[in-house]
Specification:
This protein has helices at residues 37-51, 69-77, 110-114, 116-121, 132-143, 163-168, 224-232, 239-257, 273-279, 287-294, 297-301, 323-333, 370-375, 377-402; strands spanning 23-26, 56-59, 80-87, 93-100, 105-109, 148-152, 172-174, 193-195, 207-211, 283-285, 306-309, 313-314, 338-342, 344-345, 359-362. It is of the alpha/beta class. The chain has 2 domains: 23-62 and 303-402, Rossmann fold; 78-287, Glycerate kinase, domain 2, CATH 3.90.1510. The strands form 4 sheets. The chain has a 6-stranded mixed β-sheet, sandwiched between helices. The chain has a 5-stranded parallel β-sheet with strand order 2-1-11-13-15, with helices on both faces. A two-stranded antiparallel sheet has the order 7-8. The longest helix is centred in the last third of the chain and has 26 residues, at 377-402. Belongs to the glycerate kinase type-1 family. It holds the Pfam family Gly_kinase. Keywords: Kinase, Membrane, Transferase, Transmembrane, Transmembrane helix.
Length: 404
Amino acid sequence: MGMGEEIPARAQERPSMARNAVRLLVAPDSFKGSLTADEAARAMAEGARRACPSAHVTLLPVADGGEGTLDAIAASTGARAVWVEVTSSGGHRKKAYFLALPDGTAVIECAQAVGLPEAMASGQDVWHRATWGVGEMIRHALDLGHRRIAVTLGGSGTNDAGLGMLSALGVQLVDDAGEPVPPVPAAMHRIARADVAGLDARLRGVELLAVCDVENPLCGPQGATRVFGPQKGVDAADVERLDGEIARVAEICERAMGRLAASLAGAGAAGGLGFALYLLGARRLSGIDFVLDATQFDEHVRSADLVLTGEGRTDEQTAYGKAVAGVARRAQSHGVPVFCISGSIGPGAEALYDQGVTALFSITPGPMDLGEALANAPLLLRSAVENAMRAWRAGREGWVRSNE
């Protein structure tokens, strides 16, 4: 069965089905450091088939809007990759791609243009990095006629409040003398006005989505600069100053655009890129919900007998908008049990039981060095899934016999 292949509709009386008609939906996130979501799905499928050779297995790897989101969507939807040339956060030209979905949606991953690893390796400090390339990707999507554009906000190396993106889309930032000001943090103190007359008119009527699970506002104690700035290179001594400049410039942009956006949940995502998208009229959508909708998860899960999901580490953080929690909630709404099989199970993971996870499993059979676990992740995952499926199959078949 192919990736994302639709599962035929069937009777709702699960216990009376033939024993060889088990239908499994395999929907893991990546196991960071060892397996992509696609690789994890394939390893899970192999383990499941060892226990249930006749099972119908559908692979639907997922992501929560961060790294790997484009890969997960492409693997399950037949989306087309569109390669374009854009400006990196450090100012050089580079190749990046976005996805064109069959329904006409363009999915842009901001990290493709302004990702953190590339930014840190570029030699350009955070004061001179901008999100210009994200705006260029949006322009390319508009050129192709897309009327629905989703921007995933994870893994950025910028802290420019999205000014670079706005500039690429036609907003001009000027000083007191009316001279243009570059859209980088180092020059924010010069910005006196935002001229929106040149804003790309094609944005009118386009549905924009800010795909993220971050709830931080743009400024303040929980804002982009104070929470995420240091990991991007903002020195502790400069955090308050930059946060203040961003707050000032945000008010200028809000007046020019006619929208209040700085205080909205998610405005601080991707160094304030969420704020700039909100100024353009974007609405926020959970990363995992966006991925599940794009891959038609509900269509697949309603015909499944069991869902297999997992990630590198499952703990109390998983319940807050992570992929596994999203998968479990959707499956629960259709009455389908969920096995979560992860690299490790940490404190607080039991909270997932209330969100639809039926059982939690770790792939490590005992104490094991991290390097060894990472190196043997495919084998360990196959084995753990096989054991879980053998137990599930035994219980299921015993229940069927008792109800015949």
